[in-house]
Amino acid sequence: MSIVAGMVRGNLTLLQATAITDRWGTAHYGRLSGLLAAPAHTAAALAPFAGAALAVPLGGYGPLFFLLAAVSVAAALIAPWTATDAVRPIRTTAPDHN
């Protein structure tokens, strides 16, 4: 199981790097990468506390996992409507500086 978890984490690292350039282009990659990573790292740091705090009022970890699955499905369903027009086409020729 730990091998699968490592493979998933490695793929997510590559996905994050390509998702930024695919969605917003290569300009300001560092700033955009930081803006994308900050909420994810904050959520990962707070998740153990939040999970334990929410499990009690929800009646256990089963309902909590169901809630998390529902939120994940909702996020996946609205993701197509978050596209922007900021993606720049790849140049196949050198720019003309005349």
* CA gyration radius, whole angstroms: 19 Å
Termini gap: 58 Å
Contiguous runs where pLDDT drops below 50 for at least 5 residues: none
Tell me about the largest β-sheet.
none
- Report the total helices: 3
Estimate nothing, just give the exact number of structural domains. 1
Overview features:
98 residues; 72% helix; mainly alpha; single chain
General description of the model:
It is a single chain. The mean pLDDT is 83. Helix content is 72%, strand content 0%. With 98 residues, it is mainly alpha-helical. Helix 1 packs across helix 2 and helix 2 runs antiparallel to helix 3. It starts with a helix and ends in a 20-residue tail after the last helix. The longest helix has 30 residues. It has 3 helices and no strands. It is elongated. It has one domain.
Could you give a short description of this structure?
This protein has 98 residues and is mainly α. The chain is 72% helix and 0% strand.
Topology record:
Layout: H1 2-24, H2 29-58, H3 61-78
Helix pairs in contact: 1-2, 2-3
